[in-house]
User: What shape does this take?
Amino acid sequence: MGFRCGIVGLPNVGKSTLFNALTQTAAAQAANYPFCTIEPNVGNVAVPDPRLDQLAAIAGSGKIIETQLGFVDIAGLVRGASKGEGLGNQFLGNIREVDAIVHVLRCFENDDIQHVDNHVDPIADAETVETELMLADLESLEKRVPNLVKKGQQGDKEAKAAASVLGQALDLLREGKPARLVEPRDPEEERLFAQAQLLTAKPVLYVCNVNEDDAARGNAYSARVFDKAKAEGAEAVVVSAAIEAEIATMPADERGDFLAELGLSETGLARVIRAGYTLLRLQTFFTVGPKEARAWTVPTGARAPQAAGEIHTDFERGFIRAETIAFDDYVTLGGEAGAREAGKLRQEGKDYVVHDGDVMLFRFNV
Assistant: This one.
């Protein structure tokens, strides 16, 4: 299951530095956390999960394969992007293709790096990007909703449902609010809402790019961004792109001491990856055996057949049952045999809702 986060931002906020550091760091990591270049501006980054190492050690797995998130370095934005200014059409088109937006905001002072508006204001920067996305959505829905209303009045039930949910989004946009604030929807409305591919329906992760001295605790600028994220139900993290760029060039065995000197327990990139995973409401289940221990990604609330389908579509189509062990039980009881003997290996059917950390083996017939 592929999930991609688009990295966006105004000029000179550190967007490209962050993306380049992310790709370089991932490429330089040990085999546990590989980096795979798909296109020049797209990379898959492993989601760090120490549980996988524990499972592999217990099972004696020959290989470890992590679950991954994709990051896309999206073309820079300028005012007027919604009208095609600059690389506007490319920018908006790339946004439509990602599952979430990672919005890099400049939260540092530096006279040598000119800000596009000649002053540092991350909230204003965020609003500039959001405004362009809202204008593009507004233009789209003002054309689309009246046609849906007309079809709905003529007896088209799907058009009527779409007119209702997209009409709510249009009202929000006219008030200067993003479409993601539309009230909870039933499954059919959710499907129709997703089909609309609204730019402001994407979940947002704000990345506060700070100076090295502020990497551990943030600063007044990043505090304002965290307040904004909390009010919106978004996520926010503090990162120093300069530190990340330096880490990317270091031998792996020197990074821990370097981070400790700065008061950091992990890289900013690890925080970005984890926050992206949280933002998209994803969870992990594991398959473990002598050949490999592997992490798989599914949405929170996924049922067992859907999880099986992540491994192979035949597994979902011919699903019979899932043999399931909770992560803690697997570790405490020393693996599958111990869990089975203690009665902690469960036989779960089609309605079983997968829990984060489940160790699963699927039985199927096609």
